[in-house]
Please model this.
Amino acid sequence: MLFLDKVVWITGASSGIGEALAYQFANQGAKLIISSRNEDELLRVKQNISSNCLIIAFDIADSTAVEKAVNTAINYYGKIDILVNNAGVSQRSLAVDTQIIVDRKIMDVNYFGTINITKMILPFMIANGGGQIAVISSITGKVGFPLRSAYAASKHALHGFFETLQLELKPEDKIFITILCPGRIKTNISRNALKYDGTLYGKMDEGQEKGMTAEICAQKILKSIYQKKPEVYIGGFDILLVYFKRYLPTLFYWIASRVKPT
Model:
């Protein structure tokens, strides 16, 4: 088993990629902590897991709640070997229409919430002799895309933070960071996305509907974490946009401006 007796904490584990990762890690022998705001859904996920699994329900945008959750996790297992930062919220609205409170909410969850829990757990990892931090970013963490201005900004910010953190960490800290960039994955991310006024989008995108399954995505993520890869792109044609932007920027802007964004 690839992760036998490793303590793995997955945020945003009540559905989608996070839920699929919980099952994959459990099948590989990990001891789990699963978190999200929805305790009922976490209980449902736990029922499908036979290995040791601790539920900690909290709002990652609430700093006090995060601190309490970290203390609970450390007191229960004594360590965290792998932190999977998966919690997040997306967006479906034009930048010009999006109220600033929505931009702030998305940054609070996707960026500040993620780096906050990371900063709280990191000293425990270093003291324990090492660990790994996996960050579920997005292809939009590498390229902009219509209707996702705040979401793309939050994911771009994660890359800047975690790339810098990896450079700052000393070799003797034995902390490895893996940034994972899924493209269109068939989850409820579009249903839970925020519109210009903060209300839910509430629909499954056509592109999302035709995307890679969460189960296949989770398998690829697990392999990448095990191999300690620094950055990984996961998806179909959509991941080519990263390379187009880098090597053929004119082609990238032509394609990105014409792809149906929903």
In short: The chain has a mean pLDDT of 95. Residues 10 and 34 are 5 Å apart (CA to CA).
